[in-house]
Specification:
Belongs to the quinolinate synthase family. Type 3 subfamily. It is found in: Cytoplasm. Keywords: 4Fe-4S, Cytoplasm, Iron, Iron-sulfur, Metal-binding, Pyridine nucleotide biosynthesis, Transferase. Iminosuccinate binds at residues 27, 44, 123-125, 144, 242-244, 259. Its main location: cytoplasm. This protein has 355 residues and is an alpha/beta fold. The chain has helices at 5-18, 32-35, 44-52, 66-75, 92-95, 99-111, 128-136, 147-155, 169-180, 201-206, 224-233, 247-252, 259-268, 281-290, 314-325, 337-351, and strands at 22-27, 40-42, 59-63, 81-83, 118-123, 140-142, 162-166, 187-190, 209-212, 238-241, 255-256, 274-278, 295-298. The strands form three sheets. Strands 6-5-7-9-8 form a five-stranded parallel beta sheet, sandwiched between helices. Helix 4 (66-75) links the parallel strand 3 and strand 4. It binds (~{Z})-2-methylbut-2-enedioic acid and iron/sulfur cluster. Iron/sulfur cluster (SF4) binds at residues 29, 65, 91-93, 125, 216-218, 280, 306, 308-309.
Length: 355
């Protein structure tokens, strides 16, 4: 649907009034009506770095979800204010790993006698306090672009190291099995709702990857059966998916990678080629619109937007921008200094990774 012209005009006016004091970040999964006002677009990692590269901007309006705004707050200077236009824009995956649960798991691993060999690795899609946990406990943050390098680093930290991978079991499993040659049987799932993670001492002792039982509710919906259907319907189709998809789906895909990889792959694709893409629908639609010379279909029978990403809509953006223009900082996201310092340790280890 086209954006309300009155709201578009108000967003333009507020942006113009704020000028260089304002920097608007737009995640690839945001609505078109919001993306049109983004000064830069990207995945969560690129956006956090883009924000850090604009120390002159007083206000960073983050059109994305809560953990991304936290990361931007951590990576920017203390004088910069990060604003999330709707505080209800969380991430169901990030919410699946709470600090208290992870600390309980860590203690259970000490009781099981394995904690000394475990290196925690958390996906960028986690709350700041989980990143801080990793910083305090010799671990690292990773993104979907550098998960393999981060796992290599983690396994090199200790003899016979095991990795506790948070919070996305699929990214952890797909990277370990498909990129690093770790056997599926060496991956176990830690269920925080069960005592001892629901794992036996033998299972823990034999594991190399301890995968937290979390997943993305959007990418988790893609099914291997739809891949089969689309291959039957469009011979020669290329199936391109995000590594947050289930292992069975990734096994059937031709190419797997981050949102930035997906975008670059489509940009480089030959005219006339046919693609099925398994990632968030706002991005897939935008790619289809931008590449009319290629056939781009969504890898699902149903529409599936990320409902929390979609909470950031034009009315919320206008509300945030108009308040800032009137001198009122609303919905500021701040990470407390102690958490920030520990999270920065884990983020810095990631930034120092080779490649
Ligand atoms: O699934 C997401 O939310 C992704 C891919 C986030 C990001 O940009 O890393
Ligand atoms: Fe979280 Fe998935 Fe939405 Fe990304 S797409 S913000 S991982 S729920």
């Amino acid at each position: 649907a086209a954006s309300d012209p009155d709201l578009v005009e108000r967003a333009r006016a507020a942006k113009a009034a704020l000028g260089d004091r304002l920097f608007v970040l737009g995640h690839h999964y945001q609505r078109d009506e919001v993306i049109q006002f983004a000064d830069v677009t990207g995945d969560s990692f690129k956006l956090a770095r883009d924000a850090a590269a604009r120390p002159d901007a007083e206000f960073i309006v983050f059109c994305g979800v809560h953990f991304m705004a936290e990361s931007a707050d951590i990576l920017t200077s203390p004088t910069q204010r990060v604003v999330l236009p709707d505080l209800a824009a969380g991430c169901s995956m990030a919410d699946m790993a709470r600090l208290r649960q992870v600390e309980d798991a860590w203690e259970a691993m000490a009781d099981a006698g394995i904690q000394d060999s475990v290196v925690p690795v958390t996906y960028m899609n986690s709350s700041a306090d989980i990143k801080a946990f990793c910083g305090r406990n010799g671990g690292v943050v990773c993104t979907s672009s550098n998960a393999e390098v981060a796992l290599d680093w983690a396994f090199a930290q200790k003899p016979d190291a095991k990795v506790l991978f948070l919070p996305d079991q699929h990214l952890g499993r797909n990277t370990a099995v498909l990129q690093m040659g770790i056997a599926l049987e060496e991956c176990v799932v830690w269920d925080p709702r069960q005592p001892g993670g629901g794992l036996t001492a033998e299972e823990l002792a034999g594991a190399r990857m301890i995968l937290w039982k979390g997943h993305c509710s959007v990418h988790g919906r893609f099914s291997e059966h739809v891949v089969d259907e689309l291959r039957a319907k469009h011979p020669g189709i290329n199936v391109l998916v995000h590594p947050e998809c289930k292992h069975e789906v990734v096994l059937k895909a031709d190419l797997v990678g981050s949102t930035e990889f997906i975008i670059k792959t489509i940009e480089a694709a030959e005219p006339g080629t046919v693609w099925a893409i398994g990632t968030e629908l706002n991005l897939v639609k935008r790619l289809a619109d931008a590449h009319p010379d290629k056939t781009i279909v969504f890898l699902d029978r149903n529409v599936c937007y990320c409902s929390t990403m979609n909470r950031i809509d034009l009315p919320h953006l206008v509300w945030a921008l108009e308040n800032l223009a009137a001198g009122q900082v609303v919905n500021q996201i701040t990470v407390d200094p102690e958490t920030e310092a520990d999270a920065l340790v884990a983020l810095q280890r990631m930034l120092d990774l080779p490649g």
